[in-house]
Amino acid sequence: MFKAVAGYYKDNERLRLLVKIIAVWLISRAVMLLMVPVMNLIADEPHQWLYYMNPWDAEWYKGIVENGYQPPKSSGMASWAFFPLYPLVCMAVRLVTMGSIDTYAVGMTVSNICIIIAVYYAVKYADIELDMKKYNKKTVEDIIIFLMLAGPFAVYYGAMYTEALFILCVILCFYNSARHNYMAAGIAAAMASATRIVGCMLVFVLITYMFMETCAECRAKHNSEMKDNKEAGIIDKCMLTEEAGILIAGNISLASVIRTFIKNVIKEPKKLVAIMISPLGIFIYMNYLRYFCGDSWAFYHVQRAWRTQKMFPVIGVLFKSCTGQLSAASGVKTLNGIILGWLCVITLMLYAAMIRKKHYALGIFGIIVLLIPLTSSVMSTLRFIMGSFVIYIGVAEIIAGCNRYVRYGIITLLSIVEIVVISAWYFWDGLLM
User: Fold this and answer.
1) Is the pLDDT reported for residue 252 higher than 50?
2) How far apart are CA 109 and CA 50, in angstroms?
3) What pLDDT band is residue 52 in, cutting at 50, 70 and 90?
4) Are 16 and 9 contacting, i.e. CB atoms less than 8 angstroms apart?
5) Average pLDDT rounded to a whole number, residues 254-261
6) All residues at 6 or more sequence positions from 56 whose CB lies less than 8 Å from its CB, including other chains
7) To the nearest 5 percent, what fractions of the chain are helix, strand and coil?
8) Positive or negative: CA dihedral 122, 125, 131, 132
9) In this structure, what are the phi and psi dihedrals at residue 294, rounded to the nearest 5 degrees?
10) What is the tens place of the pLDDT at every residue in 92-114?
11) What pLDDT score was predicted for residue 105?
12) Phi and psi torsions of 59, nearest 5°
């Protein structure tokens, strides 16, 4: 019996991956739980794990799950700043459990299930996106599992926050787009757009992968024609080279590729529908807000209640943040602003490098998702960076390219950083909000 189970485990790659993910998840959550009594030793008064794990926005989500969207507070803050899919999922779980479980516990359960599934598909996507001839597959797998479950800011995915559900939708969109399963990718994008405002930007992921697919088709067709012409003795000007048995000839006209791309999208209804449904979640929410409070853009307009300092979008925000010129009206402490500002600059540089490495969809999406919050503030940009998923592939590729001892050193350092982050999260440090 034992040998049969062991043999099945050994031969089943999916099972081995899932077991590894759950093992790392259990260890990381055990660390978060064990840090509670340590925090209580230095806290003004002791608290339970649910309190420590669910600061700031978690209170808003708890309120939405229990009472739905409500009129704004005297401060002008309103619950409709928070998108509905995550609260709806939590409501469904709460309904199934008949309200017998604490709402925070329900939210954390949803988040933890989402992140386990997300990590599984993140590994599968990395197998497609990264060059496994250059990197060791198992090494990349281990790095991604570590980063998303035990690396810096992994605490986000254990709280009653949208990050876990959002990153799951993002990963499913990337994974299905890479496999040319565009309808499933479009559905994932629609769900993401009902989870966070930047989710609708996943439409660019679909378009990028569709365009790359068209480029590959045009190149293959062009190479085939050049090969036929060469065999017929027609070619005398084109230089042909052969790599891995594939003939490659010159550059293909960008205009012809664009025309072919447009024709392909129109001819294939699934592609067109996938693109059209990508922002469906946010459109449904906007229609609801129009009925509920008379303003389709209420989720955007209410942001003024959180921060009132006006700055020039992106450039002005980054300049004032990096140079420590943020005022109290920005809602961000000066030191936190400096840290977040420079972190955003470094992240944008990483995304640009990823585009240069031909991770086009990842780089483009990462840049867009980060530029959107930077139009007004650096507040919460850490969550935008981590939740976009892009940074995990970029960092994993860097670490995978290092030798074994450097990798171990980096992972050890990042583990220590995560412990510090958990401590800061438990004490509601504004850097992480």
Assistant:
1) yes
2) 11
3) very high
4) yes
5) 86
6) 428, 433
7) 75, 0, 25
8) positive
9) 80, 10
10) 999 999 989 999 999 999 999 99
11) 97
12) -65, -40
What pLDDT, on the 0 to 100 scale, is given for residue 65?
97
Instruction: Please give the backbone phi and psi of residue 325, each rounded to the nearest 5 degrees, phi first.
Output: -105, 15
Are 188 and 176 within 8 A, CB to CB? yes
Cβ pair 149, 119 in contact under 8 A: yes
> Between 185 and 250, whose confidence is greater?
185
| pLDDT of 310 higher than 60 | yes
Kindly tell me if the per-residue pLDDT of 250 is higher than 60: no
Per residue in 397-422, is it b (16+ CB within 10 Å) or e — as a string? Answer: bebbeeeeeebeeebeebeeebeebb
The least confident of 26-30, 47-51, 392-396 is: 47-51
Which one is predicted more confidently, 253 or 428? 428
Q: Is-contact 106 93, C-beta < 8 A?
A: yes
- Give the whole-angstrom CA distance, residue 51 versus residue 62: 12
What CA–CA distance (Å, rounded) separates 196 from 349?
Answer: 24
Do β-strands 246-249 and 240-243 pair in parallel, antiparallel, or remain unpaired? antiparallel
Give the separation between CA 147 and CA 414, rounded to whole angstroms. Answer: 8
At residue 242, the pLDDT reads 38
Please name the residue ranges forming H helices in 323-389: 334-356, 360-371, 381-387
Indicate the length of the chain as a whole number.
Answer: 433
In this structure, which long-range contacts are made by residues 246-250, counting pairs with CB atoms below 8 Å and at least 24 apart in sequence? Answer: 247/223, 248/219, 248/223, 249/222, 249/223, 250/222, 250/226
What pairs with residue 194 in β-bridges? none
Beta bridge pairs of residue 241: 248
- Residues whose CB falls within 8 Å of the CB of residue 253, separated by 6 or more in sequence, listed in order: none
Under 8 Å between Cβ of 317 and 374: yes
Place of tokens 């009129």: 71
Q: Taking each helix axis from N to C terminus, what angle separates 390-400 and 404-426, rounded to the nearest 10 degrees? A: 150
List Cβ<8 Å contacts ≥24 apart for 419-423.
419/31, 419/35, 421/152, 421/153, 421/155, 422/31, 422/32, 422/35, 422/155, 423/35, 423/39
Q: Is 82 exposed, middle or buried (CB count within 10 Å of its CB: 0-12, 13-18, 19+)?
A: buried
DSSP classification of residue 243: E
